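Researcher: I'd like a structural prediction for the single chain below. Treat it as a standalone chain; there are no partners to consider.
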Amino acid sequence: MTSSPVGVAAADIDVPSLPRRMAAFVYESMLLFGVSLIPAVVATLFFAQTGRRHLLQGDTAIRLFALAVYGVYFVWFWSARGQTLAMQTWRIRLATAAGGRVSPARALVRYVACCLLWLALPAFVATGAGLAPWPALALVAAWIAAYGLLSLAAPGRQFWHDRLCGTRLIDERQTGETPTQPTARPR
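Model: Treating it as a single chain, here is the predicted structure.
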């Protein structure tokens, strides 16, 4: 990780605009489709080998497995590189509130907070209200838009889960940093 430009404190670096953050969110959703193939293949193999119609008597286990796979993806990228693939494309980097590298433990806490605040909250409301699938999906989409707008009222314009976890999103275009690239291995 490179440091902030001379004379610029980590807290003074502008955060990426909300449209850029939401565009990265949409792009990340598309990339997660590929990641979701891992649990899908595991479920298919399980069904083929056991002849069961339901994974562990329901789809809850496969959903939890998918959440675990997504968790590994996010925690690894956030702690190892500071960026997921979508964040790298949009030149957005995750750092601690002080601008340092995010530890795996903090990345895991951020992942859980993201799941709870972005998805679980509206899903629980939709389930409690007995909404059909399409209205429930509309509620989740409306909440994601509202949650993004709520970040504009948060201190430092950070998402609320970032405030809760002691992390921040940094616009790499303004810090002059280059995207994180793997180094070549010597032969």
